[in-house]
Specification:
Number of strands of chain B: 11
Structural class of chain A: mainly beta
Distance between the termini of chain A: 41 Å
Oligomer: heterodimer
Shape of chain A: globular
Radius of gyration of chain B: 13 Å
Helix content of chain B: under 10%
Radius of gyration of chain A: 14 Å
Largest interface: A-B, 24 and 22 residues
Strand content of chain B: over 45%
Order of helices and strands of chain B: EEEEEEEEEEE
Helix content of chain A: under 10%
Largest sheet of chain B: 7 strands, mixed
């Protein structure tokens, strides 16, 4: 069975500082990996995904994540955060497009301090 | 394109009442899901469906029922509401090629 661990439940960071949100997964097969973002009182939106190919994937708003197969990790990073990045971030894993199941971590609340 | 639409957005129920959360999608996706989200607990899968007429239990199905008579609609029914069902409920569909989920905006349910 697959599982996802997000090591930090809350991460406070000052504006314009770098941030890393950690995600580790366990699975016995090849996986697809996702980061979702949830702004207050909204649904989840896809931030970025790894399906295959380059292990470094980027979002349109400056986040990036790197798939590390040996460490079974998919950490999310941003070199300089903005107030508008304040949100909850969820890491998720799927055992391929044909799998019905997407397993989510418990989420990390990112608070950007002005 | 509306995507995934959930109604109602907010609802307060008394213990023992019943209600249905509606979910409809216009993306022609076969896979649909119901999750509940509780603070600090992430998302837990209640039920899912791989196509019209086919549903199956997820991680936390007790106290809920679903049906899937059409590709577009996937309602979630609470038969005898309990305080433990106070939560935010999300409906989602899955894209056929990437495994990406598309979420509705959520339905916030309070049971008093």
């Amino acid at each position: 069975a697959q599982s996802v661990t997000q090591l930090d439940s809350q991460v406070p960071v000052f504006e314009e500082a770098p941030v890393e949100l950690r995600c580790n997964y366990s699975s016995s097969v090849s996986v697809y990996l996702f980061w979702y973002v949830q702004y207050p009182n909204q649904g989840l939106q896809l931030l970025l995904k790894y399906l295959s190919g380059s292990t470094l994937v980027e979002s349109i708003n400056g986040f990036e994540a790197e798939f590390n197969k040996s460490q079974t990790s998919f950490h999310l990073r941003k070199p300089s955060v903005h107030i508008s990045d304040t949100a909850e971030y969820f890491c998720a894993v799927s055992e391929g497009a044909g799998s019905y199941q997407l397993t989510f971590g418990k989420g990390t609340k990112l608070s950007v301090i002005p | 394109n509306a995507g995934v639409t959930q109604t109602p957005k907010f609802r307060i129920l008394k213990i023992g009442q019943s209600m249905t959360l509606q979910c409809t999608q216009d993306m022609n996706h076969n896979y649909m899901y119901w999750y509940r989200q509780d603070p600090g607990m992430g998302l837990k899968l209640i039920y899912y469906s791989v196509g019209a007429g086919i549903t199956d239990k997820g991680e936390v199905p007790n106290g809920y029922n679903v049906s899937r008579s059409t590709t577009e609609d996937f309602p979630l029914r609470l038969e005898l509401a309990a305080p433990s069902q106070t939560s935010v409920y999300f409906c989602a569909t899955k894209g056929p090629f990437t495994g990406e989920l598309f979420f509705g905006e959520g339905s916030r349910l309070t049971v008093l």
